[in-house]
Amino acid sequence: MKTRDLYTEAHLAVAAIRVLEHRQDTPPSIEAIGDLLSFSVEHTNLICKRLAQMGVLKIAEGPFGTRLFVQDHQLLETIPKGETGGPLKDAIEAFQASRKNHDSQIESFKAKQLQKQKDLFAQLDQKLKGDLKKDR
Q1: More exposed terminus of the chain, fewer Cβ within 10 Å: N or C?
Q2: How much is the pTM?
């Protein structure tokens, strides 16, 4: 699945809600929307929660699960085109950068330990050779 911006995914989610509502004559669940769009449940939930915060969708939780309603589809046009992840994407990039830094620290530590081990073996080798020469 290629990465789409929030604007495109929001339009897809609203269209999926309308199609599923037309097909089933009931408001769809988050899982049904995710299945129709081939999105993971987590990704669909993230999109729907952002749209609910903006006032585009209304999320109703009841005994038969969470159902979604289109509240004001015109608010979709307020989403900037090209905005991909927002704060979540920034947090992921920061985590990946810190992870790379951590990995490089581990690699440098391993290299130092390997050099220490080589030096120790060289020292032991010289000692053993010196002891053998004394014994002769």
Answers
A1: C
A2: 0.59
